[in-house]
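Journal club prep — side note

Before the paper discussion, L.F. wants everyone to see what a predicted structure for a comparable chain looks like in C-alpha cell form. Sequence:
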Amino acid sequence: MAAHIERMKAAGLLPVVEHDGDRWRVVAKGATRGDGYVYCHLASTTRFVQQRNGPRPVQIADWIAADALKAADTAILRRLGRKYRSGRATPDEAAAFEAANDRQMARQRSVQAQVKGWWNLPVARACWEGDARVQGGAA
C-alpha cells in the first residue's frame, strides 16, 4: 500500500463516496475492472449496527467508479491542504498531506517530461533533417 494512503488512514482521513443513495467511507480498494470500476470495501457513514461495545458501521463491498474515487481523494486533499496551510493540521494530517503532495508533484514532473519529449520529437527530427520551415527559413 502506498505510504500516503497509510498516513491518511492513520490520520482518520478516508474518502467518502455516494453509492446507492447513501454516503460510504472507502476503507480499502482492490482490483480494477476494464470498464473503470474499482472493487472497494465500504463502511456506511449513516447506518450502524448496535453491538455490546457500541455501534459499528454497516459494511459492504462493491464496484465503485474510478472517477468517483478520484473525486473523493481530491476533496480530502483540498480540505487537508486548507488545514495544512492555515496551521491547524495535526502532525498525522500534515505528514499525510506532505506525502500525497510529494507523490502528486512526482507524477506531474513525469507527465511534463513525457509531454516535452513527445512534443519536441517531431521538431527535433525536422531540425536534424534540415527542414527549413522549422529552422526559421523560407518554405
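L.F.'s comment for the group: The longest strand covers residues 37-51. Keep this in mind when we get to the figures.
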